[in-house]
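Problem 12. The chain below contains 287 residues. Write out its predicted structure in token notation.
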Amino acid sequence: MAHLVPTNFTRRIVFSFLSVFLIVFAGTGFWIGQRLERVTLDEFRSSLRTQVRLSAQMISREPVAQKDTARVQEEVLRLSGLGGGRRVTVIAADGVVLGDSERAEEEIRRMDNHQTRPEFWKALKGQIGFSDRFSNTLKVPLVYAAAPLWADDGKTVVGAVRIAVSLESVDLLVRSVRRPVIAASALGVLVIFVVGIALGRGFGRRIQALRGAASRFAGGDFSRPAEVHGDDELRVLAESMNDMAVGIERQIAELDSERTKLAAILESMAEGVIAVDADKNILIFNA
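Solution.
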């Protein structure tokens, strides 16, 4: 039963392997997710930039300049029908919404002024504006891109056309990549755990063999050498222990031989011999 319970040594090996694995894999997974999200958003913005420029070229300037909501709404609905999943909005230069593909005409008149929208401000300066934020209207995160609507003279901005695309598709793509990364991490943890247990038990058995050999040597039993399989530091340690045991056994044999010789010499002497220590304790004597 004891072999089924991981030793402290085994637990340390498993914990070390798992710690290194989790740190490396978690960092890699996080980097992949962040990188994928950035790349996907960049592709979204690039696509939106092209779409909003084309949309700006297809919007008639006259109804925008005249703030003719009905006509502008017709233009917006026509544009939104060219591509699925897009929300198209046309905004006058003063921030008033003139058309929105997600709102009815009577609702458009009650929409908030868009002067404070960052992408709209950029468009009023004659540039393509981008913004990522949560839409209170649709209750989803959106990417907004706005392009200026130039007057026929090409010098005055009469408004802006804006396209919005949901970020849910980006989130779905990121999650679809993160799921296999998480699954691979879980599998890796399981593999590392099993391999760590196996390696830890193997090392544990070899260390126990060395410990048993050391105990035998300490008790004076040199009949069996330390046996450790493998070709690593533990094998070198076992060989060193065996060399030490051979040396100790040789020294003990030499001491026994000297003691036997001394006893024979004392017994053969006619004179009486007594050896004492500093405390006058008798150490050796002859008959």
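Discussion. Strands lie at 86-92, 97-100, 129-135, 140-150, 157-166, 274-276, 282-285. Students who got a different answer should revisit the alignment rule from Section 12.3.
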